[in-house]
Design brief:
InterPro entries: NAC-like_UBA (IPR044034), NAC_A/B_dom_sf (IPR038187), NAC_arc (IPR005231), Nas_poly-pep-assoc_cplx_dom (IPR002715), UBA-like_sf (IPR009060). Keywords: Protein transport, RNA-binding, Transport. It holds the Pfam family NAC. It is a single chain. By secondary structure, the chain is an alpha+beta fold. Helices cover 36% and strands 32% of the residues. It has helices at residues 7-16, 74-84, 88-97, 102-110, and strands at 19-24, 29-33, 37-42, 45-51, 54-60, 63-67. The strands form 2 sheets. It has a 3-stranded antiparallel β-sheet. It has a 3-stranded antiparallel β-sheet with strand order 2-3-6, with no helix packed on it. The radius of gyration is 23 Å and the shape is elongated. The protein starts with 6 loop residues before the first helix and ends with a helix.
Length: 111
């Protein structure tokens, strides 16, 4: 909480403001997925605070970053495969190399 403030007083102030705070127990892992990779928190402490009907979650812990591979939608693979007249595997590899850019993947496969 806030240094130098009595936890009992803090709870009373939060109650007056209509805030409710709850520790979420038993959390083993929290993963935040991003386009460039994932932030993984092992054994994180999670506090849920509800105020005016909105709940905010606070994650406390040390994250580690895991590089991620961009997910290529099946529709994009099918489109590139059809347009460049190549197999789905070749289309998927070309899309990965092009960072998911459909036009670039088709152009590279058509050269």
């Amino acid at each position: 909480m806030i240094p130098g403030v009595n936890p009992r007083q803090m709870k009373a102030m939060m109650k007056k403001l209509g805030m409710k705070s709850e520790d979420i127990e038993g959390v083993e892992k929290v993963v935040i997925y991003t386009k460039s990779g994932n932030y993984v928190f092992d054994n994180a402490e999670i506090v849920a605070t509800t105020m005016q009907g909105m709940t905010t979650y606070q994650i406390n812990g040390e994250p580690r970053f895991e590089e991620g591979e961009a997910e290529i939608p099946d529709e994009d693979i099918a489109l590139v495969s059809e347009q460049a007249q190549v197999s789905r595997e070749e289309a998927k590899e070309a899309l990965k190399a092009a960072g998911g850019d459909i036009a670039e993947a088709i152009i590279k496969l058509s050269e």
